[in-house]
Amino acid sequence: MTPVWPLVSLALALLLWLQTAQLHQAQDQVATLELQQELGWAQKKNLETQYRHDSEQQDAQTRAALQVAHTDADRARDVAVGLRRDLAHFIDAHRTRVTAATEQCAPDDSAIVVLSDLFSRADDAAGELAAAFDEARARGLGCEGTHDAAVTASRGQ
After folding, report:
1. Tens digit of pLDDT for each residue in 69-111?
2. Which CA distances in Å does 30 have to 20, 25, 27, 34, 36?
3. φ and ψ at residue 107, rounded to 5 degrees
4. What share of the chain has pLDDT > 90, as a percent?
5. Calpha distance 89→96 (Å, rounded)
6. Cα(84)–Cα(78) distance, rounded to whole angstroms?
7. How far is CA 127 from the centre of its chain?
8. Residue 54 — very low, low, confident or very high, per pLDDT cuts 50/70/90?
9. Which residues of 47-78 are buried (b: 16+ CB within 10 A; e: fewer)?
10. Angstrom distance (rounded) from CA 110 to CA 116
11. Which keywords fit this entry according to its UniProt record (predicted)?
12. 9 — phi, psi (to 5°)?
């Protein structure tokens, strides 16, 4: 009869060697998964940073566009005030000339006053609409840019 101990010890050594190999393989898999997790977190952080940067840049562009729209509206209002002043001077000069020329057949200048008032109101309304449309467009472009940045960031591009 052959002693069983050498065979048992050989089987145990082989089993120990297999378990050790499996342990090393599992440790390698854990290390790989931890590395993938760290890379995933870093990529997420990079995407968040990129999105924040793009969003801030889009906000700055929107603020600049709004500032331009407000400046244009202010300039248009200033021009309208100047035109109204010129029209008032013209009406006063017209009245003075008519009064000086003859008082017998003074024309009725109420039509000029009504038309100037009508044009003045129409100009005011057009200026207000233009300012509102400029502001709405600037805000819309800002929202569109922020949305595009969010879509780009979510796709990871």
Report:
1. 889 888 888 888 888 888 788 877 777 765 655 555 555 567 7
2. 15, 9, 5, 6, 10
3. -70, 155
4. 17
5. 10
6. 10
7. 25
8. confident
9. beeebeebeeebeeebeebbeebeeebeebee
10. 10
11. Signal
12. -65, -35
Which residue is listed with tokens 């499996």? 22
Tokens describing residue 147: 């949305």
The Cα–Cα gap between 133 and 66 comes to 11
142 Cβ contact partners less than 8 Å away, ≥ 6 residues apart? 58, 59, 61, 62, 65
Amino acid identity, residue 33?
A: L
Rounded mean pLDDT of 119-142? 85
Q: Which long-range contacts link 122-130 to residues 24+ away (Cβ below 8 Å)?
A: 123/80, 123/83, 124/80, 127/73, 127/76, 127/77, 127/80, 130/72, 130/73, 130/76
- Does the predicted model carry a pTM greater than 0.70? no
| Residue 143: both structure tokens together | 């929202």
Checking if the pLDDT of 123 tops 80, the result is: yes
Written as six digits, the tokens of 19 are 């378990």
